Amino acid sequence: MALLKIHKFPDAVLKQPARPVENIDGALDSFVDSMTQTMYAAPGVGLAAPQVGDSRRIIVLDTDHENLGKHLLKLVNPVIAEGEGSITWEEGCLSVVDFTADVERFEKVLVRAWTLDQKEIEIEASDLLAVALQHEIDHLDGRLFIDRISRIKRELYRRKRAKMLKEGKADGMPPSAARI
User: Fold this and answer.
1) Active site residues
2) CATH domain 12-166 topology
3) Does pTM top 0.85 for this prediction?
């Protein structure tokens, strides 16, 4: 397993919708293990394949920082089948450095996905897990959490990021409060 490079805004790969995985086989295992190790090393709550430059619909999530690995999710072709209610959560992102913002999302979601052992599953989630699932599935659709905030806040971040890149600070880290 190798740590993978996490692409940062404004890298174009982050805006491209990912394609469905056609064949779930053993070849995915090592890539998903590398994604998992990269997520833990960052450290983050979740990671989507497009964030590491891969255009397949794959995410890894672990919202339990006290028991790493115990509730780890490795999902292939996840989709939000249902969503209800509304919750505002402060989000950050491994691909959006030095910025967090309140984002409104569904409070509860039902996600359908496939596991690496080719089983179709359903996950009913609320709170942080629901937010993290929506955040990572957004990555698969070529969206970042900053696409869900006001145009003014988004433009302020774009300017700040452009200045960071100009000054050679390309690999800053998001605040530790909410790395999804």
Assistant:
1) 136
2) Peptide Deformylase (3.90.45)
3) yes
